[in-house]
Structures are given as C-alpha cells and as structure tokens.
Write the structure tokens for this entry.
Amino acid sequence: MKLLIADDSDVFVQRLVRALDEISGVEIVGRARTGAEALQALRDLHPELVILDISMPNGTGIDVLEGMKREKLGPTTIVLTNFVFPQYRRKCLQLGARFFFDKSAQFAEVRETLSGLIHKPQTLAKNGSRGTKQEAHQEHQERVG
C-alpha cells in the first residue's frame, strides 16, 4: 500500500519510518515537509494512505485536507499531530480524515491502525467517514481477536 508522510519534523519522520518498516505491505512513496508540498505529492504520487500533521509551514494539515476535498483526492488520511484539541479533531474528521491521533500518546495505535488497513483493505472504502479511536480499536480487535 502506497503511503505519503506529510510532516515537517525530521526526527519524528525518522521514528515513524522505523516503525512502518516493521509492517509488511507499506511502501513509503514520498514525504512532504509543507502543506503545499503535501498537496503536490498527493497529485503526483496518488498514494492510498497519507499520514498528515496539522502544524506545517506553507499550509497546515487542515489546508491540505481542504485541498484534498476540493480536488477530490481520495487517499485514506490519518492525522497524527500534537494539536489534539477537540475543534481540530472535529474539523479534520469533517474534512474527510479517517483517523485522528495524538503524536505523543497514541503512536502505537497508529501502527496498529495502519497494519489493520493494510491487512484488511476493504476498510479503505470507508474513507471520509468519521473514524474514531474507538473504531480503530474495534478494527484492531476484529483483526487480532
């Protein structure tokens, strides 16, 4: 499954890439450091999944989600951010993000969710639904349980 990472933190992206290397079926096809780069990479690379931070220079993750919606770019989107305020969560999910996770507290859940999406690809069809932490956990439980 082709994945784009949109995050401006080199240290965090290195940690994420190491974690993703442990999941078979993930192919990281690109990395964007800014909102503008993220939208261009989405147009050029056509990933099936995108991991998106909210805080980036030259266009926030919310700007990227708005652009994705406007341009009908449809990868499954996981927002992974330190900006976990309820208003951001609501806005991201309204704009089509499938999942919304806290970078500092839910890193393991992101790995579980990605693994579930890759090994249960029909869940990708739900893109744009208001996925929640509980939905991700339920999908994980179905997979392991």
Notes: The first helix runs from residue 10 to 21. Residues 2-144 form a domain with the Rossmann fold fold (CATH 3.40.50.2300). DSSP finds six helices and five strands in the chain. The longest strand covers residues 27-32.
